[in-house]
Each structure stands twice: as structure tokens, then as C-alpha cells.
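TICKET: design request
STATUS: open
ATTACHED STRUCTURE:
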């Protein structure tokens, strides 16, 4: 019954901003501004040479608040009951997402502790070194994360301010931005946006007809 204790801690550390607010990614913002010719030259000059991974494919890529959310869950199921995709028969269950994060965190923690015991050198193993060949995708399917409509219903329904949407977005960002994968219609849309500035295959000169001779 640790969730009874963690619920008070989780409520205390709940962000003051609007619940379900999406966190912007500066690197992506600068890239979009660069495409539109609005970027700051100094920002371009200071851009990292190696593009980092976006999102998260394992618990090591999540924040401590995401992990605290997982251990705070009371498993009441209100988030899933309020989830439109789940109501319409989709595979997505916000409650299952949160529980999967907790299960994976337990597995990763046990792996790190086991590695420390087996290591002859008495040095701390970084928590990011969870090389057991598994990830959150072993617990959460791609069908689940892409079924989310980001409507924020699960976040609003949670009595202890857990944010399943934040975890879903991070996993989905990893799949789309880092792995360049996703539903076929999404990839087509992103490609059209990048090449044509439109979700449809319309050339950039589509407004040329309004120009007078």
C-alpha cells in the first residue's frame, strides 16, 4: 500500500502548470524555425553536432516524476473509464500504461542491483546502464501509444494527479522522431510537411495564382 504514502508526495510535486500541457522540445522548435527562415543564427551555430534521442524508449528516459506517478497509482481505473479510445474499443488503457511503467521500473531496478552484486569492482553502476535487452516496448505496444488522441481525459480523471499522457507522448516521440517510424498515414503527412509545408502533396508555389503580372 505504498501508493497511500506516495499519493501525498505526488500531489505536492504536481506541476503548477495546466494539467496535460505538452512540453515543447527546443531542438524541434529551432528546426522548424530554421525551415521557415525564422531561426536565430546564434542558435544554429550553437546547435549540437550529434542529434540526441527524442522521447523515451525505457524508464531511464523518463523523469523521476513519471516513475513516482507509476508508484502512486491506486489502480482505480478512472483514467481508463474516461479514455475515449478505450471506450470505443481501442487497445489503449492509461491505467495499463502506468502499471507497465511501474513493472518495467521494478525489472530495471532489479537488473541494476544484480549487476552491482556480480561486479567485482566496487563502483556505482549508472542507472542509465540498464542493458538487459528490454524496453518499455516490451510492455507497451505501438498500437496503444498511437491510439491516444491526447484529449487529456485520463489526466483530468485521476484523483492523485497522475499524468499518463506525458509517458505516452514520450514513448510516441521516440518512435516517431528517433526511430522515424509510425502509422503510414502519419509518415506521409510528416514528409509532406517537411517537403511542401502542407499535409497534402501541394507544391510550395500553390499561392502563385494570386500574384498579378
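STATUS: resolved
RESOLUTION: sequence designed for all positions
ATTACHED SEQUENCE:
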Amino acid at each position: 500500500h505504498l501508493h497511500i504514502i506516495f499519493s501525498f508526495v505526488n500531489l505536492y510535486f504536481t506541476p503548477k502548470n495546466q494539467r496535460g500541457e505538452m512540453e515543447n522540445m527546443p531542438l524541434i522548435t529551432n528546426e522548424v524555425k530554421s525551415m521557415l527562415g525564422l531561426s536565430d543564427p546564434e542558435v544554429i551555430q550553437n546547435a549540437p553536432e550529434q542529434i540526441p534521442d527524442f522521447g523515451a524508449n525505457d524508464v531511464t528516459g523518463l523523469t523521476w516524476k513519471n516513475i513516482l506517478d507509476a508508484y502512486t497509482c491506486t489502480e482505480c481505473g478512472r483514467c481508463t473509464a474516461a479514455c475515449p479510445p478505450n471506450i470505443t474499443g481501442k487497445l489503449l488503457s492509461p491505467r495499463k500504461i502506468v502499471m507497465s511503467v511501474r513493472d518495467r521500473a521494478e525489472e530495471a531496478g532489479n537488473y541494476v542491483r544484480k549487476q552491482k552484486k556480480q561486479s567485482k569492482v566496487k563502483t556505482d553502476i549508472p542507472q542509465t546502464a540498464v542493458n538487459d535487452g528490454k524496453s518499455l516496448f516490451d510492455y507497451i505496444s505501438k498500437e496503444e501509444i498511437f491510439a491516444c488522441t491526447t484529449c487529456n481525459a485520463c489526466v483530468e480523471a485521476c484523483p492523485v494527479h497522475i499524468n499518463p499522457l506525458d509517458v505516452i507522448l514520450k514513448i510516441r516521440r521516440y518512435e516517431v522522431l528517433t526511430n522515424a517510424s509510425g502509422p503510414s498515414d502519419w509518415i506521409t503527412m510528416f514528409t509532406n510537411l517537411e517537403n511542401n509545408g502542407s499535409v497534402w502533396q501541394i507544391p510550395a508555389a500553390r499561392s502563385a495564382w494570386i500574384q498579378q503580372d
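CLOSING REMARK: The radius of gyration is 21 Å. DSSP finds eleven helices and no strands in the chain.
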